[in-house]
Amino acid sequence: IGYVLIFITFDLFPISLGIAILGHRLWDIDLIIRRTLQYSLVSGILAAVYFTTVALIQNAITAVGGQPSAVVIVLSTLLIATLFNPLRTRIQTLIDRRFYRSSYDTQATLARFAETARDEVELERLTAGLLQVVQETMQPEHVTVWLKNSSSSRNV
């Protein structure tokens, strides 16, 4: 009975979980794949940087002083903590640009519109920009913008 339980636990459970995820769309599988790829790359690069810096600096200190030092581990840890967010952001941008192009283009288009909307004062140009962004990002068949007349609700 022990072999049957091991078989069910280690073989059938992951297979049934995968079938449920794919068959019933329980999770956004693209997001899971994207995040797994991003954090795997970040973890691998940071681990390589950490072990390389520890080995190189430890060898240098041992050659000069004759004894290994715990300061090396602290310095390497601080280096990794400093590198984490910039590296994660760059890898995320790289993966989104390479594998999820439509999502990346949508985010870039919305960021450009946010930049222009902040500085734009003419309502017609702002409306035209909004219509263009909606058309590019969502690609609807028809777009309508309703604006409330501000003169009737203004207190003078």
How would you spell out the order of helices and strands? HHHHH
Helix content: over 70%
Number of helices: 5
Overall mean pLDDT stands at 80
| Major β-sheet annotation | none
Distance between the termini: 84 Å
Measured by DSSP, the beta-strand proportion falls in under 5%
Written description of the protein model:
This protein is mainly alpha-helical. 79% of the residues lie in helices and 0% in strands. The chain is built from five helices and no strands. Helix 2 packs antiparallel against helix 3, helix 3 packs across helix 4 and helix 4 packs antiparallel against helix 5. The longest helix has 37 residues. The model has no long low-confidence stretch (mean pLDDT 80).
Keywords summarizing the entry:
about 160 residues, mainly alpha, about 80% helix, flat
Short description:
The protein has helices at 2-24, 29-65, 71-99, 101-119, 123-138. The chain has 156 residues and is an all-alpha fold.
Q: What's the layout of helices and strands?
A:
Layout: H1 2-24, H2 29-65, H3 71-99, H4 101-119, H5 123-138
Helix pairs in contact: 2-3, 3-4, 4-5
